[in-house]
């Protein structure tokens, strides 16, 4: 089953699959960073927004918020969650906006969904073009050189008389610019169990490579991957939050 088929066929389970994510903490952290580094305005665009849980929080913070994604079933659910927001079916590597915005976000490591280094660079160029002067781009990411391919995360949930187990983990071969996000979803209802497996091809890069790609467009600030406090990155962890101010 392809990545697109998995997310389309199981879009009803997407929020359940992400039930252990603290969207409130993530959104609040980036809101605070925007207050520190941003231009004081409040228009917002969320790349790869999915069903828009982050967008919901930014609207509640007082932003004029919008989102884009490649998956229409996700966007349909996003519109229900956030009827006051605007959503568009676009590829974040080559998106366009009708009006410039002040904050662009990309949560849940979704920046890695760019199809290769060149597409990543196109995404950064698109972000730069879409931002107002002094606007910021915030995203979280993983350094390919720090990936533990044997590590994975797991959580369980119950919905409509079914028990779900979700597992995900990064895999990097050790060379090149491709990595995989490996997923499995197990659904048990009564005595029947269904299992889906998938591998999402994603772009892999070191933080050195990423900073070089960002430099032509942004002033770069890097923080530890901790949504509860703002701590400068100590250059040891392979996970970080990037705050990039348009120059």
From TrEMBL:
Coiled-coil stretches noted in the UniProt entry, renumbered to this chain: none
Enzyme class: transferase
Methyltransferase domain mapped to chain residues: 45-135
Highest taxon of source: Bacteria
Molecular function (Gene Ontology), one example: methyltransferase activity
Family matches, as Pfam families: Methyltransf_25
Keyword field contains Transferase: yes
Keywords tagged on the record: Methyltransferase, Transferase
InterPro entries from the UniProt entry: Methyltransf_25, SAM-dependent_MTases_sf
EC number: 2.1.1.-
Single GO BP term: methylation
Name recorded for this polypeptide: Class I SAM-dependent methyltransferase
Organism from which the protein derives: Pseudoalteromonas distincta
